[in-house]
User: What shape does this take?
Amino acid sequence: MAGGVGGMGAVGNCRSLGRRRSACIPLLAVDRMSTGGSACQPPAGQAWEGRLAAAIEQSRHSCKRLRPAMSSNVHHLYLFFDTPLQLRRVQLICQYLARQSWEQAERWIHELDPALDRSALWDDDWANASALGHPQHLELGFDTRTTAGMPWRLLETLFQHGLQAAVLHVFYDQVGESERYHFDAGQWVSHHAWLSRYPERQVLVDTDGEVYPQPGQEEGADGTALTNPAQPMAITRLRERDQERDRQAQESVQALLDTMASLRKSGVSPVQGIVGLFMLRAGFRGLCEAVAFTVIAALAFRGKGLWLWLALGLVLAVVLPLYSMAGARREFAGQGGGDAAS
Assistant: This one.
């Protein structure tokens, strides 16, 4: 089923919004702005806005629920803009992106900002994308892999182009849990601060009244985790922080893989190699404890019997690492014995 006006048609998609929450969200399929049957640049000002609003309004129709094929993270964004015109422009771009009309999307992205790239607003790996415009806000949804990061760059870019405030709701399908982030003026803020500034918008971002806790309760009825910062944090800093964490995690994994590959080449079992690494770490810890004890004892007695403490420290530098390594070895042996017994 499709409706059109001025060369515009519509397609639909549905998405899950989280635990016990779902909505049917139609997508606008704008083929082109036409005048006399030929493509042209979109008109500016009120005429353009009126045609766009009329096309969006007439594009809504029913759709059927789509069942996800595998576990994913379901993202749902509530986006509030400074002006209705900014809202409609971003809505049109998001609807093009949601239906993977890359050429049309990039044309309108260029209208928004000639220096803006599509990758700043969209990841081509996002699936089940949908967009729906309301008089006061835009709802944008998409699914990502369970290992994918948060859409911080999308929010950062939108805040640079008229976005006033936003709420991000993420449903982790693999574990059946949800969490929610709140943003205002380019910063990640607490839900208390967001709701106190925009009390009239609570009904828009929590239509069922199940997300936010009632007075005297610690969480809402649906168990959504409300993730709050210790203090407001710029979304740029949030993005950079997560990128640094991802980089460190990748480096750690790569270092472990390289170590295991080296062990295989040398004929050593990877398991035995890992055990050896833990034993070395335990031995180093024991050596540090011996050195710390020797220094503290020498300072406490103000150098009296210094040679005695040095001798005792030397003994401890041998005994404590061996003791720690033996303890680590027994721990691994005990775990292996337990597994074998089970």
Notes: Confidence is low (pLDDT under 50) at residues 1-44, 57-68, 337-342.
